[in-house]
């Protein structure tokens, strides 16, 4: 080809839930680069380093190029037919011997909506179980559960394009400039226009430095902090009485509970000075409108759902929901974690959060799919590994997830997977979990397929195929169709557009969505009909549940705090240039930050007698590892901060498998560790 024979294919970024669009530049059937697309609905020309430079990942040496079958203990290359026949045969045998509930699957927040739809349909209609879950369980399940209780809909209330004109932003347990960089950029635009910013975070993140007020709370004290702020709001008469009366219920019990959180007590619990609590209450509550943003610093606690409902309480107390420049806005982590929840990759929900325990819903899906369906809620992800150890679960089918690296108490996860009779892993890379599989199936990357992703502001956007699947890989959708057909339940779809038409027929939230309508700008759900323009702001006239409900929530300590044996508190989070572990497959991104650098405070470094860049051993009750350290006052004394981006430093062997009582999300954000000089 000639240098000017470059095709540009608009598509959606495969990394974070911001949902930026850009053009893949394709020449001679190969992606040669990325350029901004000025018409991108969320990001315009802006892109972060991951979207801009991470595409070499498509051609990583670590890509799986052919199916693999374990023979005499070793994974060896196989033909597709042999691998798929074997998977179908084993799934059928296990179902015949132990029943459908002896199988479970993990779907993927990296795959398209259409593929997630097929995966949950495969488990429900073909296998006959609701044992289907995915990584939302370990990140934003408290959002789905908590906002569903408070508002009736477990999703972000507002839109990203409001941010540059926000007047007040309250960012708690989120680090947008690193984890959702284009959202971070929009926040900086708002600051430049005079917006006020409150940051609540134990770490001095970049936004904290530019904020009007930084609340350095103790990890895991969010409920106490928010209750304290609300106590002050009521004491000063800063609440929105007319909103409370017209739009909410449960206020009286909620108000009584807040009496237990006077500023002095809250200050002791959280470590935040009383004056700062008062200032936060004043800035947030007296503004005409204020937006709340949060992410995993709120959800990844044993009180995750309580934390989310506390933020919903705060927004309702001040009337800051149901209108622009306000709301409760969870920044969903992965590119399509919103969509994989929407598509029913959850053990209790069909697509569109229609409940498996509702007989009418069950009947609707039985009629549509032509098979009897299970009325029982399936296993949640954290329950799958103990079920495997107990021999209740015999096979797992894991698509596009790497729980051995990403789940808390990783050694326990490994033991669970080792106990299975049969493990199938479908991925684009040879992940740590794939290394344990009996059969490995090579999937195709986002550049190799057409479908849709749904971003953190509920915007459903096109993913457009730019190149053919590399080597012998197949799209996840194609693999699922071939498996279903082999198991005697035909999946016959000619295109992913056809799958979306089936989704729309069965899912009121997506009722008016077609690939044609999404075009270059996408649509924000709910989109109930073909004429409906989509929804920028939720809960405008009424809440999805009718009235919003105040919940009386009490503060509870984290499950594991530092003690004599493990005197440091370990907290985890993300870094700008990486996304979980799989960006290690991009040489460009990995070269920005090639290794783990555990952050410790200068006082602690002095006590331990370690210098910047030296290595330490970190141990917890569950495991140990060695890591290089960085000495910085970003973290307070007594706290160690690590990422989870490096296979060779698997932080999750340390983290605590204790989980939120409602959503079963692990408490990644606090556990006790010890540090020793090597
Ligand atoms: Fe991709 Fe997120 Fe970066 Fe946008 S902000 S380019 S969606 S990783």
Notes on the protein architecture:
This protein folds into four domains: 7-59, N-terminal domain of TfIIb, CATH 2.20.25.90; 68-137 and 335-449 and 473-491, 3-Layer(aba) Sandwich (Rossmann fold), CATH 3.40.50; 157-331, Dimethylsulfoxide Reductase, domain 2; 568-677, Beta Barrel (Barwin-like endoglucanases). The longest helix is centred in the N-terminal third of the chain and has 19 residues, at 80-98. The chain has a seven-stranded mixed β-sheet with strand order 5-4-18-17-16-6-7, sandwiched between helices. With 678 residues, the protein is α/β, with parallel strands linked by helices. Helix 3 packs parallel to helix 20 (476-486), helix 3 crosses helix 21 and helix 8 (222-235) runs parallel beside helix 14. Strand 4 (68-71) and strand 5 (74-77) form a beta hairpin. The radius of gyration is 24 Å and the shape is globular. Iron/sulfur cluster is lined by residues 13, 15-16, 18-20, 43, 47-48, 50-51, 180-182.
Report the biggest beta sheet as strand number plus sense, adding barrel if it closes.
7 strands, mixed
How many structural domains? 4
Distance between the termini: 56 Å
Ligand types: iron/sulfur cluster
Which architecture of the largest domain per CATH? 3-Layer(aba) Sandwich
How confident overall, as mean pLDDT? 95
Shape: globular
Features:
single chain; 678 residues; alpha/beta; N-terminal domain of TfIIb; Rossmann fold; Dimethylsulfoxide Reductase, domain 2; 4 domains; 7-stranded mixed β-sheet; 6-stranded mixed β-sheet; 24 helices; globular; binds iron/sulfur cluster
